[in-house]
Amino acid sequence: MKPGIHPDYEKVVFQDTAADAYFLVGSTIKTDRTIDYQGKTYPYVAIDVSSASHPFYTGKQRVAQSDGRIAKFNKRFGKLGSK
């Protein structure tokens, strides 16, 4: 590799603030904040959503309505035309 053209790759602690979960992963992100994690000091980044709090991964996602457009129309207006 050419020296001086690649970003610094280091271990970074990400905190999911919604689930209060911490993840130690390698990243090139730049931050001024640090945190003591498992006895060492690492750069720190707070994030809003991760796999620990996202509804798709936690299984708490909303179920989409399965009725089609015609079924919805008949449900709302089906009784108006019949006498």
How are the secondary structure elements laid out?
Blueprint: E1 10-16, E2 21-27, E3 34-37, E4 40-47, H1 55-58, H2 69-77
Parallel strand pairs: 1-4
Antiparallel strand pairs: 1-2, 3-4
Describe the 3D structure:
The protein has about 80 residues and is of the alpha+beta class. It contains two helices and four strands. The protein has helices spanning about 55-60, 70-75; strands at about 10-15, 20-25, 35, 40-45. It has a four-stranded mixed sheet with strand order 2-1-4-3, with no helix packed on it. The radius of gyration is 24 Å and the shape is elongated.
Low-confidence stretches: none
* Assembly annotation: single chain
Indicate the radius of gyration in whole angstroms: 24 Å
Termini Cα gap: 80 Å
What would the average pLDDT be, to the nearest integer?
84
Q: What structural class do helix, strand and pairing data support?
A: alpha+beta
- The tally of beta strands, per DSSP, is 4
Strand content: 25-35%
Tag the structure with descriptive keywords.
83 residues, alpha+beta, 4 strands, 16% helix, 31% strand
The gist of it:
Helices cover 16% and strands 31% of the residues. It has 83 residues and is of the alpha+beta class.
